[in-house]
Design goal:
The chain is built from 21 helices and no strands. It is mainly α. The longest helix has 34 residues, at 395-428.
Length: 504
Amino acid sequence: MRGGELRFALLVAGVGLATCAALFVGAGHVGLAVLPVALTAAGWALWRLPLRYPALLLFALAILVENPGDQPAAGLWQSPLYPLGRLVYENLNKATGIASLRFAVIDLGILALLALTGARVASGAIRYRGAGCLTVSALLAFAALVCLEAWGLLRGGSFKNSLWQIRQLGYLPLLTLAFQTAFRGRRDRALLGGLLLLAAVFKTGLGLYFLHAICGPQGIVPPYVTTHGDTVLFVAAVMIALTFLYERRSPQALLLALGIVLVVGEGIIINDRRLAHAALIAGLVTGYLLIPRSPRKRALGRVVLCSLPFLIAYGVVGWRSAKPIFSPVQTVRSMFVEQEDRSTDARDIENYNLMRTMRGNLLLGTGFGHEYAELNRADDISQIFEQYRYIPHNSLLGLWAFSGLVGFTLLWMPLLVAVFLAARSYRRAARPLDRAAALTAISVVIVYALQAYGDMGLQSWEGLFITAAALGVAGRLADETGAWPRTQARAASTGAENQEGCPA
């Protein structure tokens, strides 16, 4: 028997055994029985496709489909994509009734992409490329997560609840490595940017429809119109358009920037998330400080200075006005004027409890699987969110409390390294698209950090994928522009890979 025939026979035998096992585990469930065949066919298709296509497909699915756990449209309306979101993000046992399927389609997709990337690199089909410091920091972050999980369990932590704490945290460094390998060259970065812009416009359209067609006739004023996680998407889209306009300065770039700012800017306003405004301002200021001195920068500075009187007048007039045209002013005002309400009090109490928990375990934290110490009690929300002490609202302080100084430093290191690489790449990049990508990557890290501090951002699937893509882009840019030095062997292989363009 030839080698190809033997491999085919082994494959058929393996699928047959897997089908029998699935029938046994699923107690004769037909849907589970066809799963091995479906997974085999999908695996064959994935193996034949260039790596960037499954990576882009998974990325598009994550940023377009709504996660039911985020309560899209404040739970008042379900968009046409809501059923798909349930299938993608909710555990399969809810859809199939099979208790053993305690994982979601998104988990399968991520694990399949990671396995495919590892297999391609190990077989030599593609060459792993990227900044070495980002690769090392990502591996250290994942190793630290495993150690903190073991540390928490050894101290009597809850394994079930620890999985909810580390799920997205564990995927972030691994997806960063996968995206750093899959997305090569300007064409892939353009596709990523285009997907982000389309998703932001599409979700803004959903929000406008919900606000005016669903809520308007009933006189309902929703607290938000899409999801909290869309903050990262909206800010990233605006930053892409504005930075590309600054770097390209063409009529097409101007039209794109105007369209995105007007449409997605409206999405930011109607979604009413203070963090989005803060992140956008922080991203613009950071970008302005990073761009080198030039006539363009001086001209931009003069435009900002000339606009200040009008902006100040707009702010003064709208400071105490409830008119819709002044809603951005009211959002900014809410950041500085102390508001006395139960939600704000609960946030303050939670932050205090997290800080006290952190002080008791300063170096290594409590480990995962533990609750924060509730020394002061706010309103009891255990009836609606049983895990609130495992997954605090301020997930950044929560990470400090659970991982300590050492763990937090290692877990957060890939983001800091990516900002460093993107800043260096921006100075070395020769093309406008590359420079815009570098500035956008830095902005994504900023909004991700703010979202983590203010709104459970570390548990957001959307934030996870956008941030992992930004980190991967930063690593690739650093490699391509020479912002991070290569070894001689890697440099010698650059020409052949650049001719290939994108990974096979």
